Amino acid sequence: MRKLLIQNATVITMDPQSGDLRPGDILIEGDRIAAVGARITPPDAEILDGRSFIVIPGLVNAHMHTWQTGLRAISSNWTLLEYFRWVHAGLATRFNPEDIRIATFVGALNQLNCGTTTLVDWCHNNPTPAHTDAAIEGLRESGIRAAFFHGSPKPDPKPGEPHFSEIPHPRSEVERLLRGPFASRDQLLTLGLAILGPHYSTLEVALHDFRLARELGLVASMHQGGGPAKTPKGWDTLEQEGLVGDFVNIVHGNDLPDDRLARFVDLGVTFSVAPENEMAQGHGHPITGRLRKLGAAPSLGVDLESVISGDMLTVSRIALAHQRALDNAAYRAATGAIPETSTIPVREALSWITVEGARMLGMQDRLGTISPGKQADLVFIRADALNLWPVHDPVATVVMQANLANIDSVMVAGEWRKRDGKLLFRDLDRVKAELSRSGSRILAELGWQPESQQARSGARIATD
């Protein structure tokens, strides 16, 4: 078994028992962390000098629609309603399976490049099994750890077709996946369900989908918010039926009333917040602070690279800054004074993209901290970089100052995916060209134009 000993690094374990080590050593055996300590006696192992690095647990991106990688930044000026019409009812309908594969592949590579070792790929543009299989293949090719959340497309119905809200999640397709690519749950790729939930489905469909997820032992993740609910009293029935529990993951949740949010926290429901995208598209204020008041915490996700960047360090920084701003404003409104101290420490923001991401997936036993027995998912941040030096507080340095340029190396399950600042994938130019052709073709089919051209032509995008 291959052994690697990382010596004399600054190690942010996120494990309360181990704490931060400066300097610290990490022993890796195969795909797992064998030991963490201030000074590990070198066994028969390869030695890596970690003196120039801050080592953190692999980041967890708890919510992203990776199939939109080829549409980067085209939605950056759109509200949520514009996004629904122009992406789901328009652009999404032009994707063939190869478009899904290349977008998912490159999107996953970029996550690795940015320090994300676990990606929750919320795939809801899969009208055929071939689209689904292509997305899974893209994840597999990248080498990332991923939870593939199988969803359903959201086009406008054609004459004679039911609305997507009336279509239950396809049991036969989920069972096919469990017999095939997800036959084992002890692998890099795992399965979850990206269901409609009561906000976007009929009550009959919601009951079906929740029961299906519970029966199969899968996470049931759903968007909550964005316009009026399809089934306004749906959550009441789901609670009465005992279908709300720790297998349920709510994305966004901005419009949930306080009493329901408190009940959900008590029931073990997890929440995935996409702070930058929620503020940009009109969801409302992220619920980070509301969860904290209940003794809970969010996981965080990018959501849409068609709107924002895919960098999870930026996501955590925005989530922290936004909630601090709300807390500071509330204090000033109540007292007329500047708060005496900050409400949220930076370590908590780092936990949102490590520990809480693992908790959301039910993978606390293998992810989220640098602890013996867990998977060797690690990120090496170059601490001697000009924009980080000198490092007085390593956690604050990572959360408040580090960026993509500082992520030197990334390891997933003991395997290097990035080394010395470069992804270990040799043909990036080819796949970038494939992604560009895919995205350009899809946009051209609907007549999309950059904002500068829209101003001259008066056109935006066609969806008919």
Task: Name a few traits of the molecule.
TIM Barrel; 16 helices; 20% strand; Urease, subunit C, domain 1; single chain; alpha/beta
In words, what does this structure look like?
It is a single chain. The chain has 464 residues and is α/β, with parallel strands linked by helices. The chain folds into 3 domains: 3-57 and 368-422, Roll (Urease, subunit C, domain 1), CATH 2.30.40.10; 59-357, Alpha-Beta Barrel (TIM Barrel), CATH 3.20.20; 428-457, no CATH class. The chain has helices at 80-88, 97-113, 129-142, 171-179, 197-200, 203-216, 234-240, 258-266, 275-281, 288-293, 312-335, 346-352, 355-360, 394-400, 428-445, 451-457, and strands at residues 3-12, 20-29, 32-37, 46-49, 53-57, 59-64, 116-123, 145-150, 189-194, 220-224, 248-252, 270-273, 299-300, 378-382, 407-412, 415-419, 422-423. The termini are far apart.
- Could you tell me the number of beta strands? 17
Would you state the CATH class of the largest domain?
Alpha Beta
Q: Any idea what the radius of gyration is?
A: 22 Å
Which spans have pLDDT < 50 for at least 5 consecutive residues? none
The DSSP helix count reads 16
Structural class comes to alpha/beta
Specify the helix fraction band.
Answer: 25-40%
**Average pLDDT, to the nearest integer?**
95
For the record, the CATH architecture of the largest domain stands as: Alpha-Beta Barrel
Proportion of residues in β-strands:
15-25%
Whole-number count of domains: 3
Question: Under CATH, the topology of the largest domain is which?
Answer: TIM Barrel
**Fourth-tier CATH superfamily name of the largest domain:** Metal-dependent hydrolases
Distance between the termini: 58 Å
